[in-house]
Each structure stands twice: as structure tokens, then as C-alpha cells.
């Protein structure tokens, strides 16, 4: 497998982790899920992310799941693995394991105790030292990590740590950060790295307009992100926005804190991507009213897509 690099673009879907109704790891659904994402046009996959319930897996389960995904992908697209950990020893161990199995790179989010610019830079300096030659993605998700990473710190990391090849941009609002990073690379003030965006694609058209290379996030309809990025790359800006608008009500509904992953997995199960929409405990459950909302949104989405096709 080719290693992750600064030219990465397209849609790297953040994969869910399928479980049975009883909470066991569902490896057959893992195969179905991989096939589903690739059929919808994913150019890469990211596993063990924050929306992949990684913290609910044992170390053995994490290894088993990653191996199953990599085996099913069989080198067709790059696979990035989240290796964020409370210490560098487990980070190194997991990273070496997944890279040995064929992963293209790893992703690291900052721990929540970092506050100053120097602390953040120092942490990623140690990440780079820990990972060695392994390329890594810097996950900038302050809404969850509570760590505010400025554009200046990112540029400092990019300048001095060559194994940082991608930013997963999930700041909100953060459009100006993308603009700043792209302006720096255009003027020669900083190395150009890949920028893939998150937040369920909620701002994808605007982020593409600021210079993002695509998306690294999840949504029950990953083809939305695929089609929007393709339309934008082809210069068909209005079509990109029309497509995005058709999916937006469901994408917005899926972004509810605490319930979003349950909504996503319910819809993926409905679409046949996984056998069960169950989350491993603890996890929220949908009410009858929630399900009625989802069904209504899906029906309206179908009609709107027909109108813009």
C-alpha cells in the first residue's frame, strides 16, 4: 500500500464499527460496510475514529477490526487508522501494528489538557518522534478535544515535522483557517499539505471553496460527499451546492450531539450496509418519534435528489 501523502484528496469515509444487537464485534457486517463505502465512491477509509466507537473496543478487538477492514479493502484504497492514546507507548504499538498490516497512515488528535501553543507543538513533536517514518494526520476537532489549534501552530508543525501530511479540519467555524493555510502555501510560507474536512460535511461546499481537498468524515449517505467534491473539482459549483442542499436536512439531523451516531447507524442498517444499527453500550437509543423524523427526511431527500438529477 502506498503511504499517505500531501496529495491525498477525495473522500475518506470515517467508518462506523459494526456490532451485533448483543454488542459483539460483527465482522461479517464489517465486510459489507467496506463494500458499501467503496461502491459509493470512497477514495479512502478511516477507522477507529471518534465516531467509530474506538474507545469501546479492547486492544485485541481493535487489532481484529483493522485487520478485517484492511483484508477486505485489499489495497484498493488507502486506509487511515486512528491511534490517539493517553500515552505514547500504546500509540506506537498500535501504529506499528496497523502499518505492518498495510495501513497507509495514522491519525492523532491532541489530548484535552493542552492549552498553550508551545504545549500543542511540543505534543506533536513527540508524536512525530514516536511514529518515526509513519505519515500522520493532525486531527483538529476543538468541539470535542477542547484544544484550540491556531493556524500559526499548524504552520509551525507543517514546517518542522515532515511526516505530518494531512490536516483533518473540524474547527467550527473554521473557514478562515483553511484560507490562511492555503495562502501560506501559495506564497511559499509553508508546505502544502492535504486538508480533508469533517463535521459530517456540514460546510463541505464552502470548505472546498476555501481550498480543502475533500472530506474525511461520516454520513449515512457518503455519496453526498463524493458527488459534491467531484462536482466542485470539475468546476460545477452550482451543481455541488444543489446536491449538498438536497442532503442537508438529514445531514443536519445526524449532527445532534449524543444521538448522531445512533442516527447514522440506524440509516446505514436501513440501507443494508450493516446488519444492526446497535451501538456498544453506553449508547443512545432512538425513540419512535426519532425514527419517524428520519424516515420523513429520507423520503424528502429522495424527492429533492430526483429534482436536481
UniProtKB/TrEMBL annotation:
The keyword Isomerase does not apply. InterPro entries: Aldolase_TIM, DapA-like. Pyruvate binds at residue 216. Keywords: Lyase. Pfam families: DHDPS. GO terms for cellular component: cytosol. GO terms for molecular function: 4-hydroxy-tetrahydrodipicolinate synthase activity. Belongs to the DapA family. This is Dihydrodipicolinate synthase family protein.
